[in-house]
Design brief:
alpha/beta; Rossmann fold; six-stranded parallel beta sheet; binds 2-acetamido-2-deoxy-beta-D-glucopyranose; glycoprotein; palmitoyl hydrolase activity; lysosome
């Protein structure tokens, strides 16, 4: 078998070369940069993260960047708990192979999937969680995305579809947060209010503890996003019943520390990065955003 004889032959010929190769491999493996796991957003997939993957490996050579290739494009409309199951398996697989820890970078809808992962995976090893323009406190706004999913539908009536008792639901319903129908939101939505602890459940303490295993939470967003509405949702701000934005620190889930946000803040482990001039689909391909808000946390 030619393949089997090849290795010993090389070894006999140049043990020094082999040693050098081994040292080189070792250097690459133990460069100290933790693998970065990326979770994409709605209507996109790994392809959209080629630029940011390149930014990461240029800034931190040798970093292993894994964009999870699941629920891409149209499949991203599947209900979020379903998606969480798939992403959880993939993320746990990567974590097991990264004994020194990982980082998690999640875009848009992916940020909510990642919050679920960090709450549910007991021994996750995520150091930094970067949430890139994600509707963390929900979404309430007419955007092009909404129009393509609910044609001819205004934000005022989306709740009728999203908060009804039965029937197929799209992922957006899992974070549709209509400030004019708060009690219906709490009653019918079984994703965001559960993550936020706005709807008490038996895993709250455990999920909070798991979430707090992260060492740093980085929230990125900005006023020119155009999709996330209100844009402050990327920083856990949201509308009150008059559609005035209430900032994170005045949100009940913050004050009650229902899922650990207040603790992270008190620990000094919450970094908020506001960037103007960035449209929603450009966040992950903008080098300035990467350098200002992301690079230093991915070591
Ligand atoms: C983990 O860190 C140790 C100590 O810094 C290092 O020797 C080892 O190679 C690292 N392992 C991986 C898989 O990066
Ligand atoms: C990546 O960057 C190139 C060059 O700046 C740009 O043309 C391309 O649209 C970017 N890709 C994505 C997915 O944004
Ligand atoms: C916050 O705590 C108050 C007082 O205990 C309680 O009435 C309220 O429902 C809590 N809200 C959330 C979101 O946990
Ligand atoms: C990139 O981000 C910077 C802010 O960090 C912004 O000023 C600029 O307009 C952005 N460019 C694009 C093409 O999104």
């Amino acid at each position: 078998d030619p393949v089997q004889t090849k290795t010993p032959l090389t070894m006999r010929r140049s043990p020094l070369l082999l040693l050098l190769l081994q040292l080189l491999l070792l250097a690459v493996v133990s460069n100290g940069y933790k693998p970065v796991i990326i979770v994409h957003g709605i209507f996109d997939g790994p392809k959209q993260f080629e630029n940011i993957s390149a930014f990461i490996t240029k800034a931190h050579p040798g970093t292993s960047v894994k964009v999870i290739d699941l629920y891409d494009d149209l499949a991203s409309l599947k209900p979020l708990w379903k998606q969480v199951q798939g992403f959880r398996k993939a993320a746990e697989f990567i974590m097991r192979k990264a004994p020194n820890g990982t980082h998690l970078l999640c875009f848009s809808q992916g940020g909510l999937i990642c919050r679920a992962l960090l709450s549910m995976i007991p021994n996750h090893n995520v150091n930094t969680f970067v949430s890139l323009s994600s509707p963390l406190a929900g979404q309430y706004g007419d955007t092009d995305y909404m129009k393509s999913i609910f044609p001819g539908c205004m934000k005022k009536i989306v709740y009728k579809i999203c908060y009804r008792r039965s029937g197929p639901k799209v992922s957006i319903c899992d974070y549709w947060n209509d400030p004019h129908h708060r009690s219906l939101y709490l009653q019918s939505n079984n994703f965001l209010p559960i993550l936020n602890g706005e709807k008490p459940h038996k895993h709250m303490e455990e999920w909070r503890e798991n979430f707090l295993h992260i060492k740093k939470l980085v929230l990125i967003g900005g006023p020119d996003d155009g999709v996330i509405t209100p844009w402050q949702s990327s920083h856990f701000g949201f509308y009150d019943s008059n559609e005035n934005v209430v900032e994170m620190k005045n949100q009940e889930f913050f004050r009650n520390d229902t899922f650990g946000l207040k603790t992270l803040e008190a620990r000094g482990d919450l970094s908020v990065c506001v960037q103007s001039g960035v449209k929603h689909t450009h966040w992950h391909s903008n080098l300035t955003v990467f350098m200002n808000c992301i690079e230093k946390w991915l070591t």
